[in-house]
Here is the input.
Amino acid sequence: MIQRNFIYRFLHNEKLKHKLYVIIFESDTPAGKAFDVALIICILFSILLAIVESLQGLPTWLTGPFIVCEFLFTGFFTFEYLTRIYCSPHPRKYIFSFFGIVDLLATLPLYLAFFIPNARYLLVVRAFRIIRVFRIFKLFNFWIEGERLLSSLRESSKKIAVFFLFVVILVISIGTLMYMIEGNRPGSQFDNIPNSIYWACVTMTTVGYGDITPVTPLGKFLSACVMLIGYTIIAVPTGIVSVSMIKEYKKLKDLECPNCHKTGHEENAAFCKYCGHKLKEEQG
Here is the structure.
């Protein structure tokens, strides 16, 4: 009964939750900034540890310390994740947010390693947590630019999907055509359609491994055509996203003040520079 009361008081200790929230979620206070900086240092050290551990020829006596350090880092990240859930005003919202999912993934690799030995190297996902550096050091302009880029990618996703489907069809067609040209030759590397499609992918992306090459004049001519097509195709997705970004910037530039109806505001402006009225009033 006493233990149950203690657990209940702990789970409903709003004063403790508020203190932890200020330290863990807010970087405006000295304690909050110190915690975030310490967290990023731990993340960097844990990633460096995984990279060094993967090197061949390390002394065997380093195995023990590496394992201990990884357990300590994982224990710290697990405790931090559970504490974030405990002190968050909206735990469910945090759990399913971008940072919540990344924080969870940062704790899982070592636990998965009990079932999949090499899974511990997945801890490099902790690198995504370094994104918090934008919040810690007030680099909000960079964060805003990142959000605009993601917004442009979302807006362009359907066009890119259609373009990708076209490229897949083109690669399959070119691979099949190359198989028809080169496949009948004795000892040909284009001895089946999947190999030919692989060659088309490598050639069209201008990677050019050179492990499969045509030998007939017609095959070489087709290969040259695919190379030239590849240069034009690579630029298309970039152009699609660039157009979306230009539209986004133009939309911000042409934002009209709901009070004086003037435009030409700065990119990150929250208030009208002419009358001082709040922009985007409908969004609060």
About this structure: Residues 143-253 form a domain with the Helix Hairpins fold (CATH 1.10.287.70).
